[in-house]
Amino acid sequence: MDPATLAAYDHDAAAFAKDWHEQSAPTDLHEIVARFFIRGGKTCDIGCGSGREVAWLTVNGFAAEGFDASDGLLRQAQDRYPQLKFGHAELPELQGIAANTYDNVLCETVIMHLEPARIAPSVCRLLDIVKPNGILYLSWRVTEGADLRDGHGRLYAAFDTELVRSALTKAMLLLDEEVVSASSGKTIHRLVARKAG
Question: How does 37-76 read in b/e, with b if 16+ C-beta sit within 10 Å?
Answer without folding.
Answer: bbeebbbbbbbbbbbbbbbbbbeeebebbbbbbbebbbbb
